[in-house]
From TrEMBL:
Stated name of the protein: DUF3109 family protein
InterPro entries with a match to the protein in the record: Rv0495c
Top-level taxon in the UniProt lineage: Bacteria
Organism: Flagellimonas halotolerans
Similarity field: Belongs to the Rv0495c family.
Length: 189
């Protein structure tokens, strides 16, 4: 672990490789698991405010879940998250013709219907952050459904921190990311 500003960062994001391999996993991270996507407090209002713009991009099952439970829900851990359809996939997930899970929020963004791409937790994945009173933890979340992404990242030689560069900059800023790159360069020596 090392510190950058008010973050404590796991060296695993420097030492492990990762590139999403949607052809292999079909977007399983949006479908698997027991919880919705983690949300920052600031993202809950965004979901409420853009719902009508996003709704045309969503599946009927997702719309029903959102309209029953709300645009976001409080998870078992007391944190905000996206609602689920039948305790399975994220309510905002859509599927392509070949069965690949995709983000309906991102589809709305790409179509110009909204200015917000998707929750930062999704954008950062496989990096997970957790806020504590004195610092933010920045960790690698290893999940077997992402083994093909690890293999592709290794083949292409793309460390996690480079794969999620834009998301890390969005979350922590360019200066923070430059410092991360310096730490990574030191680790390679």
């Amino acid at each position: 672990m090392f510190q950058i500003g008010k973050t404590i960062v796991s060296e695993e994001i420097l030492q492990n490789d990762f590139v999403c391999n949607l052809n292999a996993c079909k977007g399983a991270c949006c479908v698997g698991g027991e919880y919705g996507a983690p949300l920052d407090d600031s993202e809950t209002d965004k979901l409420v405010n853009i719902y009508q713009d996003v709704k045309p991009f969503l599946r009927p099952e997702g719309i029903a879940a959102i309209e029953e439970h709300g645009s976001f829900v409080k998870g078992e851990d007391g944190e905000w998250e996206t609602p689920l359809v039948n305790n399975n996939e994220c309510a905002y997930v859509i599927f392509s013709d070949n069965g690949m899970a995709k983000c309906g929020l991102e589809a709305a963004y790409e179509a110009g219907a909204t200015k917000w791409k998707k929750p930062i937790s999704c954008y950062l994945y496989p990096v997970r952050t957790r806020e504590y009173s004195e610092f933010t933890a920045v960790n690698y979340h290893k999940w077997e459904i992402c083994d093909p992404a690890c293999a592709l990242g290794e083949e292409l030689k793309v460390p996690i921190y480079k794969f999620v560069k834009d998301a890390l900059i969005q979350k922590f800023g360019e200066d923070w990311y430059r410092e991360l790159e310096e730490v990574a360069a030191e680790n390679l020596r």
